[in-house]
Design goal:
The complex is a heterodimer of chains A (115) and B (112).
Chain A lengths: L2 E3 L4 E5 L4 E3 L2 E3 L5 E8 L6 E7 L6 E3 L2 E6 L4 E6 L8 E9 L7 E2 L3 E6 L1
Parallel strand pairs in A: 2-12
Antiparallel strand pairs in A: 1-4, 3-9, 5-6, 5-10, 7-8, 8-9, 10-11, 10-12
Chain B lengths: L3 E4 L2 E4 L5 E7 L5 E8 L3 E10 L2 E4 L7 E2 L9 E3 L8 E8 L7 E2 L3 E5 L1
Parallel strand pairs in B: 2-11
Antiparallel strand pairs in B: 1-3, 3-8, 4-5, 4-9, 5-6, 7-8, 9-10, 9-11
The chains are: A mainly beta (115), B mainly beta (112).
Chain lengths: 115, 112
């Protein structure tokens, strides 16, 4: 069985602060893929990043960065110098097993950036 | 433009009245899935399909049906909707799963 845990239900910070969203996963597979999706207030799901289990390099994309640590089964997401437009629900998701049975999602973290 | 198209975006219906939410993708993807999103529960998979005529249950299949008669279409059918099926529904497709899924814009269903 696989599982994704996002322990932070809601985070509220003031604009320009840095914020880290935590994601811990469980899987018995040695090959798996981790994802982050953003859901803005408009409701659509926007793909942010994909990481496979063999690549532990951290990733940076502008103000976004991701820290993947297999030793702790974590795939955390940091937003530097947060902006109001970053306000959204963020989902971490896991794909493993090689089949068509889709993604396992965490319950999401609602991020509120206050001006 | 590569996309997953769901219709309708919003739907209010009454208990017991059969309805279908359509989903179509133009990316020639093999894999398609339906999810429902509920507050505090995240997204949970309802059904998935790995190819035409091949479908299987996800985590919360009760009260739903699907069909995959063509590769591009994967409709979600509620034969007798109940209020506990009030939710936000997403259709998604993927070439292989490992590259992630492309999601439709969502269908907000209210059953009264």
């Amino acid at each position: 069985a696989q599982k994704v845990t996002q322990a932070q239900t809601e985070i509220s910070v003031v604009e320009k602060e840095d914020v880290t969203l935590d994601c811990v996963y469980e899987t018995r597979d040695t090959t798996y893929y981790l994802f982050w999706y953003k859901q803005p207030p408009s409701g659509e799901l926007v793909f942010l990043i994909r990481r496979n289990s063999f690549d532990e390099q951290n990733e940076i994309s502008g103000r976004y960065s991701w820290n993947f640590q297999k030793s702790t089964s974590s795939f955390n997401f940091t937003i530097t110098a947060s902006q109001v437009v970053d306000s959204a629900v963020y989902f971490c998701a896991l794909y493993s097993g090689g089949g068509a049975d889709g993604l396992t999602f965490g319950k999401g973290t609602h991020l509120i950036i206050q001006p | 433009e590569a996309q997953v198209t769901q219709n309708p975006r919003y739907l209010i219906t009454v208990t017991g009245k059969k309805l279908t939410v359509t989903c179509s993708q133009n990316m020639n993807h093999e894999y398609m899935s339906w999810y429902r999103q509920d507050p505090g529960l995240g997204l949970r998979q309802i059904y998935y399909s790995m190819n035409v005529e091949v479908t299987d249950k996800g985590d919360v299949p009760e009260g739903y049906k699907v069909s995959r008669k063509e590769k591009r279409n994967f409709p979600l059918i509620l034969e007798s909707p109940s209020p506990n099926q009030t939710s936000l529904y997403f259709c998604a497709s993927s070439l292989t799963g490992t590259y992630g899924y492309t999601f439709g814009s969502g269908t907000r269903l209210t059953v009264v």
